[in-house]
Predict the structure.
Amino acid sequence: MPPAAPDTLLRRAAAIALVALDVDGTLTDGRIFIGPAGEAMKAFSVHDGFGLTLLREAGVKLAIITARQSSIVELRAAELKLDAVVQGAKDKGAALAGLCQRFGIPLAQTAFVGDDWADLSAMAIAGLPASVAGAAPEVRERAHWVSQAPAGRGAVREFAEFLLRARGGFDAALARYTTHRPDPAP
């Protein structure tokens, strides 16, 4: 799928109501640390987490769709107050379609961010397929948006800011953090 023209890309981004993301290689750098008792650790970027928080505050539904099972993912999703977590997804496209049905959101108003072949079925049906720098070439060439930042190191934050700008909400989001609020009188 060729990249969308800039005006088409911005129009699609402005309409996004649901962002679904892969985990390993998208929200993380793709490394999985496994100890004697199983999966021991994944590293998540606080910058990516804050980007997701900004999207949630802007009214965008947020979901994870991953082929793996991980209690670490459940913990991170709960911490970020994500709307849905689908683990063990063999067909991420079907999982995305199910979330759209659950939330009453048309596929055209979804974005899916992924990095590898298992993400292609979801990217193929999402209104805005996106990827991260360093993703498999076959994934990047099918994405309408690709980050400059690497996976697990700000790529999702970059995507969140792109969506906020397209939706016209970036300045308002920033203002919530830059406007001085005097302390209440004692």
Observations:
- DSSP finds eight helices and eight strands in the chain.
- The beta strands are 18-21, 33-35, 38-41, 61-65, 84-86, 110-114, 128-133, 145-150.
- The first helix runs from residue 6 to 14.
